[in-house]
Specification:
By secondary structure, the chain is of the alpha/beta class. The protein has a single domain (6-191), classed as Rossmann fold, CATH 3.40.50.450. Helix content is 42%, strand content 15%. It has helices at residues 19-34, 47-58, 69-73, 90-99, 111-125, 143-154, 175-181, 188-191, and strands spanning 6-10, 38-41, 63-68, 83-87, 104-106, 133-136, 167-169. A 7-stranded parallel beta sheet has the order 4-3-2-1-5-6-7, with helices on both faces. Helix 3 (69-73) links the parallel strand 3 (63-68) and strand 4. Helix 1 (19-34) runs parallel beside helix 2. The longest helix is centred in the first third of the chain and has 16 residues, at 19-34.
């Protein structure tokens, strides 16, 4: 079982069209606050990022926002978080988010969220970490991601065990159980490529 003191949430800087995205972000924040799990996230005050951060802060929880200086200068940083870390680049931001987190949760988002998700899955495949990754598939939003992973397997570019690098759930209420019960990555996800 994984010891979770902090969870990194990757999600959009917009709200998206489906109201369920906002509701799920808020519910996830409430759950993390109830469980006294620190949120590590991209540091924004807008979109789903702002919603999940505000929900945790409203519940008395701790929030660490990590934002590149150029985004902070655009005035999209959340200045009332518990701790704000300003980085020099997007790469440094992602590395700090990784360092400070015991697990990862993916909410709907755009290309940035997709980039963060694929990178953290790739690092797990390369056995650079064994932290749990949970994808919250609200209304089927991330179903295409699961299909893409399946295509890499079916095309002969990935071992079937890569599908175990993450767990996909449909509800924020299922996230915590999925985080703590995710299996360790199999050695074959890396060695099958060597």
């Amino acid at each position: 079982m994984v010891n979770l003191n902090s969870v990194c949430v990757f999600c959009g800087s917009k709200n998206g069209y489906n109201p369920a995205y906002e509701a799920s972000a808020k519910r996830l924040g409430e759950i993390l606050a109830e469980r006294k799990i620190t949120l590590v996230y991209g540091g924004g005050r807008i979109g789903l990022m702002g919603i999940v951060a505000d929900a945790i802060l409203a519940g008395g929880g701790k929030v660490i926002g990590i934002i590149p200086d150029f985004l902070k200068e655009l005035e999209v940083g959340h200045d009332t978080v518990t701790e704000q870390i300003v980085t020099n680049s997007m790469h440094e931001r992602k590395h700090r988010m990784f360092e400070l987190s015991d697990g990862f949760v993916v909410l709907p988002g755009g290309l940035g969220t997709l980039d963060e998700t694929l990178e953290i899955m790739t690092w797990k495949q390369l056995r650079l970490h064994s932290k749990p990754i949970v994808v919250l598939n609200i209304g089927g939003y991330w179903s295409a991601l699961a299909e893409l992973v399946r295509a890499t397997i079916d095309g002969g570019f990935a071992h079937p065990a890569v599908s175990e690098l993450y767990t996909m759930v449909d509800s924020a209420d299922d996230v915590f159980s999925a985080l703590v019960n995710q299996p360790e990555p199999k050695e074959e996800v890396l060695t099958s490529h060597l």
